Task: inverse folding
RNA sequence: GCGCCCGUAGCUCAGCUGGAUAGAGCGUUUGGCUACGAACCAAAAGGUCGGAGGUUCGACUCCUUCCGGGCGCACCA
């Protein structure tokens, strides 16, 4: 609702400036004043015009003032300070429009492909992977079509590098350190299932072991590295026992990852795998395209002689100069590099490759199917390689290669596509010294002095995702058990689940993307203050009011339409109620901004502000004891709209509200 | 060496395209539960926004430079 009025104001000023002064301003600032007494919207436009019109800002403001007051919904316009135009809204009329759920819509048509999670399927997921998945899942929820975003179509994919070195490492561990053959691997995996042991956890330790083993004996390290390389090549080639073992392990670990993520309400539509990108010869198609357009060329001189390379973004060369910094896509031995394969994959995402995966069903979620890539798929099947815009949730340490892929698209002439290619990057997750020591890691004095300790899969050092989820839910369960002994075990467990997951999701979302998170168990397990449970609690309290009042939230909201609100929203008491409505009205504005900046943290913070606003209101106005019937109706409706929007925003963040807390 | 990111209260972080007295949470001190359940609310203390210049009517925000910290720059994926 706020956004609608804001847009109207901007449009009105725009035409006014054109008619009166023949001036156009690209970005008309309409902001929230620092204090509610100044009104609901403030325009510093007069300052900007002062110089161009050679008039004092106050005089300009005076000329604009009466014209703005004519906008429907605007109660008055005042001039403040040196020339601010402060707009006061018609509170009663605006509140009724909010109650009727009038709001600006966000977004537009087109298919948006969000890729996130993308964990190497060779060991358990850790807290850094959770940041990726929660960020990606929340962003996908923000984009997904609903009444706020009628146009958006989305697909969520999780890229699986099942033929990379990390999988090769785990295969070396299994075949050489553990001495297993294919049959043994089958037996081992069956045993793990029977003893209820997590495969990805077993691999976590094996991976750490083999990583140390490569360099444990200096006389052997060359041979052991060669073994790793040979293993990798066998896996890439396929159709052999090593590749079969790799597939068994990678698929088993992948299933575990999906289970872990489903605990956090994270689901996927499609799992494209590296093995199909190789075997369906995506790269060959991309290579031909790039060569034909002159983007990929063979280097004849310098250190990269004999390689096929691509120019980096923004590089200008004089005639005859050798581009030593060019990105190598094909090595002199003829093999393709990672960025090369990634370019092929991204051409597919935009439907520019002329090839598609085979699709097979892989996992059934309660409401939909998750598909996986195969050579020869099932029919009928969906297809995801036709995106209008893509969002890749990838660690910012991958900024460089991501830029190369984008540059390749641009150089090939797909400029529009490269502009709709968003690398949704984020800083990594480290551990605080306290948490690192708690996990049994011995720290040097140098480490202790740092703000964070880096996790290391090769050392087997980090916080495993399932361990963290277990502890979050466990801590919530302890609280629920003492607070609600009257509820049965199943219900208590459900509530603890919602709280633990809500706390975890909020904890990893509240930081903006480029903030390095130093993960600390103590901070994550806090359920007070700016946390997920705080926001959930506000929604639960609101729901309790309606249960006791004997009316539904919907009825409470509907009752506002026939109420004379004007006097009830003025004065100190009225303003404290109005402030809740004003906060509530900003949903689409915040959502729009959060999508534009790809920053779910903005919505997370807004959810907290809404909850805070509600809690404040809740203490100040005792709704059920209110004797004035009209006032009680307004207070009930206030709680109802606050709850409605809080639920909406928490839904975009993937945070459920439990039945009780 | 080159590129990108960060430096805001004791701690952890917000601060949207430059706008009014720089905001939260935690922690500290104090007050509030026979309640719409205190996973809450209220109040207080706490800041030369890393330093120095500059642009501007106006700078936490833009530019330059310096200091401090992080990450990335391979015929690894």
Result:
């Amino acid at each position: 609702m706020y956004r609608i009025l804001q847009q109207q104001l901007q449009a009105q000023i725009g035409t006014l400036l054109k008619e009166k002064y023949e001036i156009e301003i690209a970005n008309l600032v309409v902001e929230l004043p620092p204090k509610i007494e100044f009104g609901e919207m403030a325009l510093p436009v007069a300052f900007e015009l002062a110089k161009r019109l050679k008039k004092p800002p106050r005089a300009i403001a005076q000329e604009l003032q009466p014209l703005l007051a004519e906008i429907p919904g605007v109660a008055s316009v005042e001039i403040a300070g040196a020339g601010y135009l402060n707009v006061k809204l018609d509170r009663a009329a605006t509140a009724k429009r909010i109650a009727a759920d009038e709001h600006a819509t966000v977004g537009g048509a087109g298919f948006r492909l969000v890729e996130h999670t993308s964990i190497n399927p060779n060991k358990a997921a850790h807290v850094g992977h959770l940041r990726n998945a929660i960020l990606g899942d929340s962003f996908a929820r923000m984009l997904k079509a609903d009444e706020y975003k009628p146009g958006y179509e989305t697909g969520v994919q999780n890229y699986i590098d099942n033929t990379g070195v990390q999988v090769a490492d785990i295969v070396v561990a299994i075949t050489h350190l553990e001495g297993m053959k294919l049959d043994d691997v089958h037996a081992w995996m069956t045993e793990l299932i029977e003893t209820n042991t997590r495969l990805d956890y077993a691999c976590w330790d094996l991976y750490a072991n083999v990583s140390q083993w490569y360099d444990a004996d200096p006389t052997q390290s060359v041979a052991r590295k060669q073994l790793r390389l040979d293993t990798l090549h066998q896996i890439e080639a396929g159709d052999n026992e090593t590749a079969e073992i790799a597939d068994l392990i990678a698929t088993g670990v992948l299933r575990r990852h999906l289970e872990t993520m489903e605990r956090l309400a994270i689901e996927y539509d499609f799992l494209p795998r590296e093995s199909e990108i190789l075997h369906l010869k995506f790269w060959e198609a991309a290579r031909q395209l790039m060569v034909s357009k002159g983007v990929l060329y063979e280097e004849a001189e310098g250190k990269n002689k004999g390689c096929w390379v691509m120019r980096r973004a923004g590089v200008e060369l004089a005639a005859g100069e050798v581009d030593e910094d060019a990105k190598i896509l094909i090595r002199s031995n003829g093999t393709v590099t990672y960025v090369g394969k990634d370019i092929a994959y991204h051409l597919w995402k935009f439907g520019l490759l002329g090839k598609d995966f085979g699709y097979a069903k892989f996992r059934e979620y309660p409401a939909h199917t998750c598909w996986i890539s195969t050579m020869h798929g099932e029919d009928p099947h969906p297809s995801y390689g036709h995106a209008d815009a893509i969002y890749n949730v990838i660690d910012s340490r991958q900024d460089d290669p991501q830029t190369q892929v984008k540059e390749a698209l641009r150089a090939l002439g797909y400029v529009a596509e490269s502009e709709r290619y968003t690398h949704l990057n984020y800083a990594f997750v480290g551990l605080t010294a306290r948490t690192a020591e708690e996990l049994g890691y011995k720290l040097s004095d140098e480490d202790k002095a740092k703000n964070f300790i880096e996790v290391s899969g090769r050392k087997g050092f980090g916080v495993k995702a399932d361990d963290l989820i277990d502890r979050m839910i466990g801590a919530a369960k302890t609280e629920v058990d003492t607070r609600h002994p009257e509820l049965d075990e199943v219900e208590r467990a459900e509530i603890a689940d919602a709280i633990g997951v809500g706390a975890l999701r909020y904890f990893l979302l509240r930081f903006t993307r480029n903030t390095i998170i130093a993960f600390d168990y103590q901070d994550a397990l806090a359920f007070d203050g700016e946390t997920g449970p705080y926001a959930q609690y506000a929604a639960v309290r609101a729901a309790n009011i309606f249960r006791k009042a004997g009316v539904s939230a919907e009825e409470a909201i509907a009752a506002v339409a026939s109420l004379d609100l004007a006097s009830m929203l003025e004065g100190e008491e009225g303003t404290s109620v109005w402030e809740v409505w004003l906060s509530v009205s900003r949903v689409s504005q915040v959502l729009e901004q959060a999508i534009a900046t790809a920053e779910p943290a903005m919505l997370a913070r807004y959810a907290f502000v809404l909850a805070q606003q509600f809690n404040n209101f809740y203490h100040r106005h005792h709704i059920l004891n209110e004797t004035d019937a009209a006032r009680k109706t307004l207070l009930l409706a206030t709680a109802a709209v606050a709850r409605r929007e809080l639920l909406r925003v928490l839904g975009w963040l993937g945070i459920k509200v439990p039945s009780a807390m």
User: Anything to note?
Assistant: DSSP finds 26 helices and 15 strands in chain A. The mean pLDDT of chain A is 92.
